[in-house]
Amino acid sequence: MATERLTDIGPPNYEKFLPPVIKDNYGKWDYHEIIKPGVMVHVGESGDKLYTVRASSPRLLGVDRIRDFADLADKYCDGFLRFTSRNNVEFLLTDESKIDPLIKDLDKIGHPVGGIGNAISNIVHTQGWVHCHSAATDASGIVKAVMDDLCGYFTGQEVPGKLRIALACCLNMCGAVHCSDIAILGIHRRPPKIVHDNLNKVCEIPNVIASCPTAAIRPTTVEGKSSVDLEEDLCMFCGNCFTVCPSMPMADPLNDGVSIWVGGKVSNARSEPRFSKLAIPFLPNTPPRWPEVVESVRNIVEIWVKHARKYERMGEFIERIGWPRFFKMAGIEFQKEHIDDFKHAGLTYKRSTHLRHQ
Amino acid sequence: MADSGKNGTPMLDELEKGPWPSFVTQIKDMAKKNKMCEDLLGLLERSYDEKLGHWKHGGIVGVMGYGGGVIGRYSDLQEDFPNIAHFHTLRVNMPSGWFYTSDALRTICDIWERHGSGLTNMHGSTGDIILLGTTTDELEPTFAELTANDFDLGGSGSDMRTPSCCVGPARCEWACFDTLHLTNDLTQTFQDELHRPAFPYKFKIKCSGCPNDCVASVARADMSIIGTWRDQIRINQAEVRAAADAGLDIQRDICGNCPTKCIEWDGKKLEIDDENCVKCMHCINAMPKALKPGVDRGATILLGSKAPIVEGALLSSVIVPFMKLEPPYEELKDLIERIWDFWGEHGKNRERTGELMQRIGLGNFLEAIEVEPIPEMIAHPRENPYVFYEEYFEEEDEEEE
Fold first, then answer.
1. Chain A contact present for B116, CB below 8 A
2. Quick check: B18 and A148 CB within 8 A?
3. In which band, very low, low, confident or very high, does the pLDDT at B1 lie, cut at 50, 70 and 90?
4. Strands B205-208 and B164-165
5. Which residues contact B331 (CB under 8 A, 6 or more apart)?
6. B368 to chain A nearest CA, in Å?
7. Closest Cα in chain A to B63
8. If DSSP codes are grouped into helix, strand and coil, which group holds residue B239?
């Protein structure tokens, strides 16, 4: 007998995954304290204590590693764990004496603990060459190389405030890197190479034309076949046309690479949320470890660590010292590409004499 | 045939070095028992060598009756790496707040080991559990096992995407509404909108319990629901003094960082002019034992944020300055329905809510969704004098009056 096919049941209810200490203190937490890097305690109005141990993760996990996490959760916290919005793993303990043994076990399988409070947390990122069709660079590889380099700031080396790094492997920004302290963004720099042969078979030509934000795409006929024509001067390499039409491929090893953006934030603390701004227009793709990207990110991080005031996020720090000084401190050459030329670009020009002259 | 075995993966091997956990090690561990992962290593090594991705555009694949939740993925090196010629992704709706038991995780692992690559993302950008890579034939059997174990697919394409939320009242004293309950409730209420794409484009909802916005709602959600409060910050003066005694420079670090300069400290007592407090969270973040959000709690509802595609990135902007959020959340759901109705009718293909608001203007958008314009919605009034007045008087009209 065929059983009834289940659909539209939605996710399992979260309540069945909450440990008893959370059920007992739900909505009644009093305060929290960071005990040491990667470990915090939440204290309920009841006096109950919940210890959280936050471990790093590459986000891309095989089922065996997830089972390792499950085993550790069984061993140390009655099987209860969660993941964070930045892809870390959090173990939820009630027995303080189990914290250090858990950290030791996590260390043994290669997952350093940290990333809480004023620290550099995990890098939110996208699929890259592992699984994406529009990637201008890899995601996981750069993240691994950058976090290897910055791991000390995750595990406890002191920093002025929070610093959030994100990576997106193309302008689609599945990783929504546009509001990060430091954003690593894969970019294409060559207009799509139009495949006239099959374009009219695999793409809706009106959609392709409508997809272009600068109206650079027009209908045409090539060797008797309907296709599109591209005015290359108007192309800003956004990839919109490729998103709707596979016959407009943009990936190009000679021209693809990485740009670095700084100073965005989403939190409302002190200053309002803001977008990241362009710091470095282009760095080459240099797998397997992207040394130019790693070095550039470290440079910007170190300037912030050295000069920012307590609590100051990257964007707040740069706003205080001014962009000219930031470029000078970072040793980044200011170029034409740094100046916006799309919609509302004029709002980004300096419209006062508030300038530092030394 | 795959050359990963013959020539090794010298480039990827470099990414097994160093202190941070390695994704290459994860793929290699799975490659010992899964041919898909073996081929993935070979293909990825090729990408590293050529500086070029080898995945084609997704085709339309999915499970019966759903239009979303599966991302079709095909390699352009099918002869070299036949085991990942098809390598589709399933998005599985995570439980609110990403809480799990070890048994629930093992259940997912067992299902995915039987039916796919055994590789996952915990989690994807929108929040789903990402099951990375399987063939078309395996989609329906995977789905059947998932639903038999209480899991369902998330969104993809032009539908409501899987709503997500911060840890909320489960483990945070700052949560101003029950982010987990609301997220779960909205997800269950809008199952049809989640599974069957019928919108102009995607629609994301993210719930953050306080203005710290730990799920980046203001930047990443078409509807950003961000907890806040209307009454006074609660002050424990003894704990303020304890923080000062412990070395916190309250004048510099707290008063000096307050965006509206509404805090005063005389060395003994902290006073807050709550009428001028903009609920930024800084002072509360810095002194969690001494200061707490008020008790008249709810959320600010903002609309329209998105990444650059198509017309440029946007942050969400305020639509409702304060809304109480208690089950069954009818006021919020009515608002969502009105937005979807208008956007569904007037949005262009691939136009997000935020872009529609920009195109027709916030004023017109508000009229369409029956929300009164108020000054909380703007950073400042218009500077531009070209106003589109919609009516004017004729001579006779004036005489009649």
1. no
2. yes
3. very low
4. parallel
5. B323, B324
6. 25
7. A7
8. helix
